[in-house]
């Protein structure tokens, strides 16, 4: 048994681009089991000039998403790295869509709940149509950077997850 077999597993609620299996498999280098769930008390926002979503507490909010089941410490570290300092990983309670069972999971909450760049509601299907291809390029650059930083900072990677200036 290797040490990775013994590491604790993590369940992570995802609500944005990480609902897309091809994004998750690229970032985590595997395809974890997923389960549909809802997170109450939060809203999923668009971010001005960014290709990804964020969530923030909202009294009457409800977010449909997925739980990535049984992630290793190394996989959780990959998510932490790609999310960066703009997000805070928090433990929340979700409700499984199929069984209504409650489950404690981790999720990434936007650190600045008063950020003026948050607006509207992020739409997964629209993101897939308009931004997934560019986001996948950024995710590939992230995995390349993680394997071989070659003197580049995380900030150089971050420029790839921003929209083109002419895209609204």
Explain the overall architecture.
The longest helix has 16 residues. The protein has a single domain, classed as Hypothetical upf0131 protein ytfp (Roll), CATH 3.10.490. The protein is of the alpha+beta class. It has six helices and six strands; from the N terminus they run αβαββαβββααα. The C terminus is likely disordered. Helix 2 runs parallel beside helix 5. About 30% of the residues lie in helices and about 35% in strands. Strands 1, 2, 3, 4, 5 and 6 form a six-stranded antiparallel β-sheet that branches. The radius of gyration is 16 Å and the shape is globular. InterPro entries: AIG2-like, AIG2-like_dom, GGCT-like, GGCT-like_sf.
List the helices and strands and how they pair.
Elements: H1 3-6, E1 10-14, H2 21-28, E2 33-47, E3 54-71, H3 73-83, E4 87-96, E5 102-110, E6 118-119, H4 124-130, H5 132-147, H6 154-158
Antiparallel strand pairs: 1-3, 2-3, 2-4, 2-6, 4-5
Helix pairs in contact: 2-5
């Amino acid at each position: 048994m290797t040490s990775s077999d013994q590491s604790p597993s993590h369940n992570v609620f995802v609500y944005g681009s990480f609902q897309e299996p091809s994004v998750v498999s690229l970032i985590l280098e595997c395809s974890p089991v997923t389960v549909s769930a809802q997170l109450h008390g939060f809203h999923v926002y668009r971010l001005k000039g960014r290709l990804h979503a964020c969530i923030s507490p909202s009294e009457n909010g409800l977010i449909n998403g997925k739980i990535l089941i049984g992630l290793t410490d190394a996989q959780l570290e990959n998510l932490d790295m790609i999310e960066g300092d703009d997000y805070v990983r928090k433990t929340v309670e979700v409700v499984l869509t199929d069984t209504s069972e409650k489950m404690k999971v981790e999720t990434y909450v936007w650190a600045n709940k008063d950020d003026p760049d948050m607006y509207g509601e992020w739409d997964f299907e629209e993101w897939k149509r308009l931004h997934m291809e560019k986001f996948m390029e950024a995710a590939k650059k992230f995995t390349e950077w993680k394997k071989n930083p070659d003197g580049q900072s995380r900030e150089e990677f971050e420029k790839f997850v921003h929209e083109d200036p002419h895209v609204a």
